[in-house]
Design a protein that fits this description.
The protein is α/β, with parallel strands linked by helices and about 150 residues long. It contains five helices and five strands, in the order βαβαβαββαα.
Amino acid sequence: MSEVKPLRILIVEDEFLIALELESLLQDAGHDVVGIAASSEEAVALGRELAPDLAFVDIHLADGLTGIDVARKLSDQHHVTVLFMTANAKRIPEDFAGARGVIAKPYTERGVKEALAYITAEQAQEAASTDRMTFIPFDAMSPEDSSSKRS
Protein backbone atom coordinates (compact mmCIF):
# COMPACT_ATOMS: atom_id res chain seq x y z
CA MET A 1 0.00 0.00 0.00
CA SER A 2 1.33 3.42 -0.89
CA GLU A 3 1.96 6.13 1.65
CA VAL A 4 -0.59 8.92 1.97
CA LYS A 5 0.24 11.99 -0.11
CA PRO A 6 0.77 15.07 2.07
CA LEU A 7 -2.14 17.49 1.92
CA ARG A 8 -1.72 21.19 1.16
CA ILE A 9 -3.63 22.83 4.01
CA LEU A 10 -4.97 26.34 4.60
CA ILE A 11 -5.70 27.35 8.20
CA VAL A 12 -8.46 29.94 8.64
CA GLU A 13 -8.23 31.00 12.29
CA ASP A 14 -8.11 34.46 13.84
CA GLU A 15 -6.50 33.38 17.12
CA PHE A 16 -2.82 33.43 16.23
CA LEU A 17 -1.58 31.00 18.90
CA ILE A 18 -4.24 28.44 18.00
CA ALA A 19 -3.31 28.78 14.32
CA LEU A 20 0.39 28.24 15.10
CA GLU A 21 -0.34 25.23 17.30
CA LEU A 22 -2.52 23.69 14.58
CA GLU A 23 0.15 24.42 11.97
CA SER A 24 2.74 22.58 14.07
CA LEU A 25 0.42 19.60 14.59
CA LEU A 26 -0.36 19.36 10.86
CA GLN A 27 3.31 19.60 9.90
CA ASP A 28 4.21 16.92 12.45
CA ALA A 29 1.57 14.72 10.78
CA GLY A 30 3.44 15.15 7.48
CA HIS A 31 1.24 17.74 5.76
CA ASP A 32 2.11 21.11 4.22
CA VAL A 33 0.51 24.22 5.67
CA VAL A 34 0.42 26.62 2.72
CA GLY A 35 -1.11 29.59 4.52
CA ILE A 36 -2.84 31.04 7.57
CA ALA A 37 -5.70 33.55 7.27
CA ALA A 38 -7.39 35.51 10.07
CA SER A 39 -10.18 37.17 8.07
CA SER A 40 -12.70 36.03 5.47
CA GLU A 41 -11.24 38.23 2.73
CA GLU A 42 -7.73 36.92 3.33
CA ALA A 43 -8.98 33.30 3.46
CA VAL A 44 -10.79 33.49 0.13
CA ALA A 45 -7.80 35.23 -1.51
CA LEU A 46 -5.38 32.57 -0.21
CA GLY A 47 -7.75 29.81 -1.29
CA ARG A 48 -7.79 31.22 -4.82
CA GLU A 49 -4.01 31.82 -4.98
CA LEU A 50 -2.70 28.71 -3.22
CA ALA A 51 -5.25 26.06 -4.28
CA PRO A 52 -5.08 24.04 -1.04
CA ASP A 53 -6.46 20.49 -0.78
CA LEU A 54 -7.98 21.15 2.63
CA ALA A 55 -8.95 24.12 4.77
CA PHE A 56 -9.53 24.13 8.52
CA VAL A 57 -12.03 26.97 8.99
CA ASP A 58 -13.03 28.59 12.28
CA ILE A 59 -16.64 29.80 12.11
CA HIS A 60 -16.04 33.00 14.07
CA LEU A 61 -13.23 35.04 12.49
CA ALA A 62 -11.80 38.48 13.19
CA ASP A 63 -14.46 40.03 10.97
CA GLY A 64 -17.41 38.20 12.58
CA LEU A 65 -19.32 35.00 11.87
CA THR A 66 -17.86 34.77 8.39
CA GLY A 67 -16.30 31.30 8.46
CA ILE A 68 -19.50 29.88 7.02
CA ASP A 69 -19.24 32.16 3.97
CA VAL A 70 -15.56 31.29 3.64
CA ALA A 71 -16.40 27.57 3.66
CA ARG A 72 -19.03 28.02 0.94
CA LYS A 73 -16.68 30.02 -1.29
CA LEU A 74 -13.69 27.71 -0.81
CA SER A 75 -15.82 24.63 -1.44
CA ASP A 76 -18.00 25.89 -4.29
CA GLN A 77 -15.67 28.22 -6.16
CA HIS A 78 -12.24 26.73 -5.47
CA HIS A 79 -13.07 23.02 -4.89
CA VAL A 80 -11.32 22.96 -1.52
CA THR A 81 -12.30 20.34 1.06
CA VAL A 82 -13.37 22.18 4.23
CA LEU A 83 -13.46 21.17 7.88
CA PHE A 84 -14.99 23.51 10.43
CA MET A 85 -13.43 24.22 13.82
CA THR A 86 -15.83 25.63 16.39
CA ALA A 87 -16.85 25.56 20.03
CA ASN A 88 -20.49 25.89 19.00
CA ALA A 89 -21.57 23.39 16.33
CA LYS A 90 -25.12 24.83 16.47
CA ARG A 91 -23.86 27.69 14.30
CA ILE A 92 -23.25 25.34 11.37
CA PRO A 93 -26.08 25.61 8.83
CA GLU A 94 -28.18 22.58 7.86
CA ASP A 95 -26.45 22.32 4.47
CA PHE A 96 -23.02 22.37 6.24
CA ALA A 97 -21.92 25.19 3.88
CA GLY A 98 -19.94 22.69 1.81
CA ALA A 99 -17.88 21.43 4.76
CA ARG A 100 -17.08 17.72 5.21
CA GLY A 101 -17.07 17.76 9.02
CA VAL A 102 -16.40 19.65 12.22
CA ILE A 103 -13.73 19.51 14.91
CA ALA A 104 -14.91 20.67 18.33
CA LYS A 105 -12.89 23.40 20.02
CA PRO A 106 -10.84 23.19 22.01
CA TYR A 107 -9.54 20.61 19.56
CA THR A 108 -7.33 17.69 20.50
CA GLU A 109 -4.44 16.16 18.61
CA ARG A 110 -6.50 12.97 18.34
CA GLY A 111 -9.48 14.85 16.87
CA VAL A 112 -7.32 16.53 14.24
CA LYS A 113 -5.61 13.25 13.32
CA GLU A 114 -8.98 11.48 13.03
CA ALA A 115 -10.23 14.24 10.74
CA LEU A 116 -7.10 14.00 8.58
CA ALA A 117 -7.45 10.21 8.38
CA TYR A 118 -11.07 10.57 7.29
CA ILE A 119 -10.24 13.12 4.59
CA THR A 120 -7.22 11.21 3.23
CA ALA A 121 -9.18 7.93 3.17
CA GLU A 122 -12.02 9.66 1.34
CA GLN A 123 -9.61 11.13 -1.23
CA ALA A 124 -7.85 7.78 -1.69
CA GLN A 125 -11.19 6.08 -2.27
CA GLU A 126 -12.16 8.70 -4.88
CA ALA A 127 -8.79 8.28 -6.63
CA ALA A 128 -9.11 4.48 -6.62
CA SER A 129 -12.59 4.60 -8.12
CA THR A 130 -11.46 6.91 -10.96
CA ASP A 131 -8.25 4.95 -11.61
CA ARG A 132 -9.98 1.57 -11.92
CA MET A 133 -9.38 0.12 -15.35
CA THR A 134 -12.39 -1.61 -16.90
CA PHE A 135 -10.75 -2.37 -20.23
CA ILE A 136 -7.51 -4.33 -20.55
CA PRO A 137 -5.92 -4.33 -23.99
CA PHE A 138 -4.58 -7.71 -25.15
CA ASP A 139 -1.09 -6.31 -25.70
CA ALA A 140 -0.95 -5.64 -21.94
CA MET A 141 -1.10 -9.40 -21.29
CA SER A 142 2.08 -11.46 -21.38
CA PRO A 143 2.28 -14.42 -23.82
CA GLU A 144 2.18 -16.83 -20.84
CA ASP A 145 -1.16 -15.34 -19.76
CA SER A 146 -2.73 -15.90 -23.16
CA SER A 147 -1.27 -19.41 -23.68
CA SER A 148 -2.47 -20.64 -20.28
CA LYS A 149 -6.01 -19.60 -21.14
CA ARG A 150 -5.97 -21.70 -24.33
CA SER A 151 -5.13 -24.98 -22.63
